Amino acid sequence: MADVAREAGISRQAVYLHFNSRASLFVAVVRHMDEQGDIRRRCEQALSHDDPVEALEAFVLAWLRYAAKIHPVASAFLASRHDDPDAMTAWNDRMGELRAGFRHATQRMATAGRLRPGLDPATAADLAWAMTSIPVWEQLTIDCGRTGETVRRHLAGAVIDAVSTGHTDPSRGPAQEPGDARMSG
In the chain, what are the helix, strand and coil shares in percent, each to the nearest 5? Predict the structure, then answer.
């Protein structure tokens, strides 16, 4: 808190008065990042696709595009969350919202009869969430040297293959998130 106060040019007491705890400061920081990245709107747009499988795929693409941007901060929270309860609080806050988006998508798929047989919506959401986690992103982009676009495309396809009965029209290719450059032209 002292470092934050010093960087902001205010007293540590002022930081504590506003945030009450280090955990609430961390949560505020990551929520601010989310607001700056407009991730909520992007995910809501993705989930608004009429076809529930396309909605999940667009949601995955939106999340992974954002994951690439927040990767450094997210990795720091991941690395410290087991030893730092405040980092754990911030991480759980953000991941809880992300998992809720996955649950919404997989519930829609189940309602439409598009969830892979043997999976319930909660399990499918957990699988999709884990398959698109920051550590998986790191392994594929950093450790394996794949481009972000390739990883996004492959993970979106892998998630759809893992949890759905497939696309309505397999020839149409992957869903596109709103604002995706491939949509123009």
Answer: 75, 0, 25
